[in-house]
Amino acid sequence: MPQAKLVFVHTVNTYDNNEVSEQQVEQLLELILEANTAEPKAKPRLVEYNPPPKPKPEVVKLDNDVLNKFQGKYRHRFLGEMTITTKENYLIMESGVGKFKLLPMGESQFFPEDIETSIFFEQAETDDMRHTVASVLNEKRKVERVVFYYLNP
């Protein structure tokens, strides 16, 4: 907003089903503009934002036999197709939003880099469940975990 000598950046973690309406963003911007009572500095400078580091999960090493059974194409109701492959003793998840290395935390639990929601692999109990993905929400409608239903050969 050049007229206000303002750069406004707003982010939200949509992976966890968090969302902010356009109206909420506009309200926030209005509050910021109303609060601007001082003259701008003569030589403003950018200040780098350094969020606190996120704790990394404790990673375990899994055999390729364990990893290979999870490979394949999966379908999420809203996010579409996701592909799970193996590379260098890791699972890789590719979807419409990017490519993520899945860090193993156990035989069926993984932590995707850049996403704060654990992924679990569970054996499909019925044919219509196989190779599907389900987001499990908590009482606040935040994604608590994501479950990939695989078909055990």
**How confident is the prediction overall: mean pLDDT?**
87
- Measured by DSSP, the beta-strand proportion falls in 25-35%
Let me know the largest β-sheet.
Answer: 8 strands, mixed, barrel
| Uncertain ranges | none
User: Order of helices and strands, N to C?
Assistant: HHEEEEEEEE
| Strand element count | 8
Shape: elongated
General description of the model:
This protein has a domain at 64-150. The chain has 153 residues and is mainly beta. Strands 1-2-3-4-5-6-8-7 form an eight-stranded mixed β-barrel. The protein is elongated and about 70 Å long. The longest helix has 14 residues, at 22-35. The chain has helices at 22-35, 64-68, and strands spanning 72-76, 80-87, 90-95, 98-104, 109-112, 118-123, 132-137, 143-150.
Q: Which labels suit this protein?
A:
153 residues; mainly beta; 33% strand; eight-stranded mixed β-barrel
Summarize the structure.
The protein is mainly β. The chain contains two helices and eight strands. The chain has a domain at 64-150.
Blueprint (SSEs and pairs):
Layout: H1 22-35, H2 64-68, E1 72-76, E2 80-87, E3 90-95, E4 98-104, E5 109-112, E6 118-123, E7 132-137, E8 143-150
Parallel strand pairs: 1-7, 6-8
Antiparallel strand pairs: 1-2, 2-3, 3-4, 4-5, 5-6, 7-8
